[in-house]
């Protein structure tokens, strides 16, 4: 029986993907070995007809199928995904049982961070001489945002002796880099106990000791206690209370979700609407020689430096793009420092 048109199309696309991945893998594997990078972006819709994102994590591949602009029969889609996974396996010489592909849709609210499976496939990957735990199976995101690799390195390079605040810290990879750079103190804030505990694991993997406390304990302790602290709390509320307490930090990292409607928050967060309030509140907590790093994945985001009198605002997008994300990232990234 001859192949159906769908089978023929799938086979052609599988060969196209194999050829593209073979070329990318050959180039990026050399770069990764040279730079000590154990996790990197291999493919991101390079071929429009193949709407996948694929990342290398050591001896594994993890990624997702973007939502298509049309409905596709689930069984047909499963066969297509199996063919693409087989092509990726051949190209990267990675067994198919070490390839994890989920289905990604345009995210609103907290769905990007919710568990979609419970396989618990964890791996520890290297980056910049540090180790980070990733979950390849259960979430759309693995716990390590690869497009911030160079940003994290820049934070490490400037963290020595600094007091650091990491808001919406997720799994605290920025905080780990700051600790590796010799930060005098690091306060990592997030609403999720799951991610705070994950951040604590990342600290332990790299030999750093930290404690988890409540916002109330933080307010009562002030600068006392362990220098590295994880604080479960609403980022906006934390900023208000920190300002009321007269606290200051030398290095502030503000990398919030694009949108959040978590029940644990007092309201919703929409970065397009709220970025001015967030950045303004962070700037009131910045020490005179301090730096605020602000980043967002909101598409087509624009920021007017003129809205921040008294501060020098630098667009850091190009400076923070690494080899595997050139021409691919829509992330915006800025630094704020006091004008001299």
From TrEMBL:
InterPro entries: SAM-dep_methyl-trfase (IPR019614), SAM-dependent_MTases_sf (IPR029063)
One term of GO molecular function: methyltransferase activity
GO BP terms: methylation
S-adenosyl-L-methionine found in the keyword field: yes
Domain S-adenosylmethionine-dependent methyltransferase: 61-298
Record's keyword annotation contains Transferase: yes
Signal peptide limits: none
Keywords: Methyltransferase, S-adenosyl-L-methionine, Transferase
Superkingdom as given in the UniProt entry: Bacteria
Protein name per the record: Class I SAM-dependent methyltransferase
Lineage, uppermost ranks: Bacteria, Pseudomonadati, Spirochaetota, Spirochaetia, Spirochaetales
């Amino acid at each position: 029986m001859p192949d159906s048109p769908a089978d023929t199309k799938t086979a052609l696309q599988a060969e196209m993907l194999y050829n593209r991945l073979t070329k990318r893998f050959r180039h990026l594997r050399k770069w990764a070995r040279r730079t000590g990078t154990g996790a990197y972006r291999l493919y991101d819709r390079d071929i429009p007809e193949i709407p996948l994102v694929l990342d290398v994590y050591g001896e594994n591949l993890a990624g997702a199928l973007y939502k298509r602009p049309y409905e596709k029969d689930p069984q047909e889609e499963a066969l297509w995904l199996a063919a693409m996974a087989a092509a990726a396996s051949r190209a990267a010489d990675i067994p198919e049982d070490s390839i994890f592909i989920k289905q990604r849709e345009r995210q609103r609210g907290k769905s990007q961070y919710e568990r979609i499976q419970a396989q618990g496939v964890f791996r520890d990957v290297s980056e910049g001489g540090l180790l980070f735990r990733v979950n390849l199976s259960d979430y759309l995101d693995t716990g390590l945002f690869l497009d911030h690799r160079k940003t994290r390195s820049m934070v490490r390079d400037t963290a020595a002796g600094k007091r650091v605040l990491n808001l919406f810290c997720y799994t605290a990879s920025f905080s780990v880099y700051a600790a590796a750079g010799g930060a005098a103190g690091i306060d990592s804030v997030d609403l999720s106990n799951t991610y705070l505990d994950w951040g604590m694991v990342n600290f332990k993997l790299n030999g750093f000791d930290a404690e988890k406390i409540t916002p109330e304990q933080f307010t009562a302790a002030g600068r006392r206690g362990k220098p590295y602290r994880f604080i479960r709390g609403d980022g906006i509320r934390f900023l208000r209370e920190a300002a009321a307490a007269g606290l200051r930090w030398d290095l502030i990292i503000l990398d919030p979700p694009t949108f959040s409607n978590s029940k644990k928050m007092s309201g919703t967060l929409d970065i397009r609407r709220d970025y001015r309030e967030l950045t303004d509140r962070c700037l009131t907590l910045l020490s005179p020689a301090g730096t605020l790093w602000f980043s967002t994945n909101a598409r087509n985001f624009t920021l007017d430096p003129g809205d921040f009198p008294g501060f020098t605002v630098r667009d850091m997008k190009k400076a923070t793009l690494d080899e595997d994300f050139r021409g691919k990232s829509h992330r915006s990234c800025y630094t704020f420092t006091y004008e001299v």
